[in-house]
Every structure is written in C-alpha cells, then in structure tokens.
Amino acid sequence: MQAEKDEIEKMKKNRKRENKQANKQKPNGLPQVPDAFGVLEQSEFDLEESEFNNIDKNEMKEIYQFKLKMFENEERRLREELQVLDKEKIQYMQEFKRMRDEEFSKYCGVSSKG
Questions:
Q1: Which of 21, 43, 39 is nearest to 31 (CA)?
Q2: Which residues lie below 8 Å from residue 31, measured CB to CB, with a gap of 6+?
Q3: Is pTM, for the whole model, over 0.70?
Q4: Residue 23's closest CA among 34, 33, 32, 14?
Q5: For 47-86, b where at least 16 C-beta lie within 10 A, e where not — what string?
Q6: N- to C-terminal Cα separation, the chain
Q7: Where are the domains of the chain?
Q8: What is the pLDDT of residues 25-76, one digit of tens each?
C-alpha cells in the first residue's frame, strides 16, 4: 500500500510540475489542459480542482476502504484459524503427557490381576 501511495504522490508532483511549466509558457495564467487527442490547449478548467480529479480521489478512497475490509476479514479468518490450531495443540499436548505419564508409571507393563 505504501508503494501505491508513493506512486500517487509522484503523479501529483509530476502533474503540478507540468502545470507550472504550462503556466510559464502562457503568460495569461490559464493552465493548459490536454484535450481528447493529448494536445495541450489553454483552458479555464483547472485539473487540480476538477470534478474528475475528485472522482479519482473518491475512487481511491473506496479502493482503500475495500482493501482495508479485505485485510480485516483476512485477519479475522487467521485469528479464528489460530484459535482452532491452539485448541488442537492443547489436545495433542494433553495426549502426549498422558502417554508419557503412562509409560513412566510404575504399573507400566504390569498386567492387571483380574
């Protein structure tokens, strides 16, 4: 997740750098926006505050929330599995101790008279 955050930050920095370069080229202060063909044209529409950028942020937020839910579910599943394994371990340890105690008992190998 950290790598994704770093990549997003790099993209933001690159976008800001491109906007600054575009603003330096055009003295009237309007940022250049790529059109459908990828050609930069001057526009009053600022990408940093655009509706599309907000959608991207909201989508990223939803993605992070979804990943968080997935990790929480995975953590809960692993905790339940750990509890089952702990119970199984306790049962094996009890059986091992019973067998050990039985082997070292003074009555081991002595058949009962009956």
A1: 43
A2: 19, 22, 23, 42, 43, 46, 47
A3: no
A4: 32
A5: beeeeeeeeeeeeeeeeeeeeeeeeeeeeeeeeeeeeeee
A6: 71
A7: 2-76
A8: 555 555 555 555 555 555 555 555 555 566 688 888 999 999 999 999 999 9
